[in-house]
Amino acid sequence: MGTQETVEVQKVSFSDELVAFIEQWKDKRGNLIMILHRVQQEFTFLPWDAMRQVSEMINTPLAKIFGVATFYHYFKLEKPGKHKLAVCMGTACYLKGAGDLITEFGNLLDIKVNETTEDGLFTLESVRCVGCCGLAPVVMVGDEVYGKLGTDGLPAVLAEYRGEKGE
Asked: How far is 55 from 95, CA to CA, in rounded Å?
């Protein structure tokens, strides 16, 4: 006899603004991506219950919504950390050691790319060129740019954001 896995569905509530946005877009061509962007803006990711609600509201199969959400790299199906560590892997950054930065962040935080720390504080991402090639290698934490970083500078970057949480 096989085991049955239980999937926990987090119940979410849409803001009035999100409901109005979905109503405004529900009958427009190309609406799904716009709606999913707005849902992710509200929740920082696409919770299962939110995708189910969108499916019902715009009369689109959940399988199609999931297909779009998993096809585009921008959409996240898991809640990201409070701070996104985006290591630029564009040509200049790559040549100046961005791969070492990813490895060291992974060692310091005990996570891999596209994972979140257990405390929910950091998510590590590898991203394409962020347009700061003169500062290579570059790490972005939210909208903050850290350039000309070596692996020895990463603990100080992490300490800045840990301090926000009072750790």
From this structure: 44
